[in-house]
Amino acid sequence: MRFSTAAAAAIVAIASSVSSVNGFTVSSSSLSSFTSSSANNFVRRAANPRAYTQTSSSSSLNMSATPLNVGIVGATGAVGKEIVGVLEKRSFPVANLRIFGSERSAGKNVETKFGSVTVELFSEDAARECDVVFLAVDGDFSLAHAENICAGNDGAVVIDNSSAFRYKEGIPLVVPEINAEATKGKKLIANPNCTTAIGLMAVWPLHKLFGLKKMVMSTYQAASGAGQPGMDELMEGTRSVLSGERAVAENKIFAHPLPFNVIPHIDKFQDNGYTKEEMKVTWETRKICGLPDDFPVSCTAVRIPTSRAHSESIVALFDKPVDIAAARKALEEAPGVKLVDDIDNLKYPMPLTATGQYDVEVGRLRKNIAFDNALEFFVVGDQLLRGAALNAVVVAEAMVENGALQAKVAV
Asked: Which residues does UniProt assign to the signal peptide (predicted)?
């Protein structure tokens, strides 16, 4: 079956942003009908390498520490692949990289900048031999193994990407540009939810300047937040509608069909009417920023039919009068933030430009006209990088600098 040029272009626009450079692959079934020569030309035009080059306006930390033995559990998954890529691109002091997996992946070779690495069958004893272990696995796995890996003076530092320990007392929940000092003397660190991490990169410098009083956030989250199955459902569903096979796409991963639709529902609904995804923003903002347990943060989380990079509209109310020039300066100087705010030339944050980037894009900055002392702005960040892999590696960098992460002394 052949598509019209318009239909083909629409599918390629999705497919190009789901390519392996982003840590995902498009299933062969999703593209089996895609044979148009005009579509092939569109692929070449759409695959703008600048949109997917992993860069940061703030360079990696200056590392002069003793090289470390680094372990990754789940390195063949989307976040795990990105952790390997971030380690390769930054100056993190890797002496030896070990990758742990299940029986299904054990024995496979992974090519990295640090050499060809054979995936080892995971065991707690093997992981404890490392200096630092990144967990890119689900919460149940982390609950079962993380504390055992880091236990005792001879255990490894563990940086966990799951939700298992985010709200546990005594375990730091860290965005290093905000609260890196919380890692001092700790062996187990929790990585925040991607939505929270992306938003707080923009909110924190403004909070330091004006004093945050309340925050209302609306998120527009990509299909990749549901992993590869979510991406495949978006891709296949879009294809089936554009080909005329179906009037409405099928859905198994999402609560409703995602192609040509938006879904104001991510994660389970709670007793207060919010979803758990929305409450994560509230809970994690309070913990990371050291705010009171009743600090007012509200979020509405929406799934949209884009492939990668989450977007957020934020209204922040402050204690002090706000000044746009001062706010712009604070955002321009903030590490990990890129101010993209030139409306005369139609420059503002978008998933298309934020995908693959280390920095969070912030723009559409303006005084909110409904509330006093309030700013409104738009934030976009790559949730697999700033919201997961990059954040984890920068946590480890901060721990090297503050002495919480050191190479073990051989005995």
From this structure: 1-23
Is 154 part of any domain? no
Under 8 Å CB-to-CB from 333, ≥6 apart: which residues? Answer: 205
Determine the Cα–Cα distance for residues 304 and 331; give it in Å rounded to an integer: 27
Phi, psi of 302 (to 5 degrees): -125, 135
**Structure tokens belonging to residue 261:** 């639709």
Under 8 Å between Cβ of 157 and 69: no
**Greater pLDDT, 9 or 80:** 80
Which pLDDT score, from 0 to 100, does residue 33 have?
40
First and final C-alpha spacing in the chain: 66
Q: How far apart are CA 105 and CA 86, in angstroms?
A: 21
According to DSSP, residue 226 is labeled G
| Interatomic CA distance for residues 151 and 406, integer angstroms | 15
Instruction: Report the CATH number that the domain containing residue 216 is assigned in CATH.
Output: 3.30.360.10
For 143, the 3-state DSSP assignment is helix
Three-class DSSP category at 299: strand
Q: Report how far residue 116's alpha carbon sits from residue 96's, in angstroms, rounded to the nearest whole number.
A: 11
Q: How far apart are CA 130 and CA 237, in angstroms?
A: 43
Rounded Cα–Cα distance for residues 121 and 214 (Å): 47
For the chain, how many structural domains are there in total? 1
Three-class DSSP category at 314: strand
Tell me the three state secondary structure of residue 312: strand
Domain with 369 in it: 196-382
Residues recognised as catalytic = 194, 310
Strands 212-221 and 132-135: unpaired
Query: Tell me, what DSSP letter sits at residue 344?
Result: G
Give the angle subtended at the CA of 178 by the CAs of 210 and 113, to the nearest 5°.
140
- Average pLDDT (129-149) is 96
Query: Is 320 within the bounds of a domain?
Result: yes
Give the β-pairing of 297-303 and 132-135. Answer: unpaired
- Helix or strand or coil: residue 244? coil
Q: Is residue 374 situated within a structural domain?
A: yes
Structural domain includes residue 254: yes
Share of the chain above pLDDT 90, in %: 79
Taking CA atoms, 239 is separated from 30, 235, 330, 352, in Å, by 7, 6, 44, 20
214-258 confidence digits (pLDDT tens): 999 999 999 988 888 898 999 999 999 999 999 999 999 999 999
Sequence-distant (6+) residues with CB within 8 A of 114 are: 87, 88, 94, 96, 97
> Could you give the C-alpha distances from 327 to 248, 316, 368, in angstroms and in order?
44, 12, 13
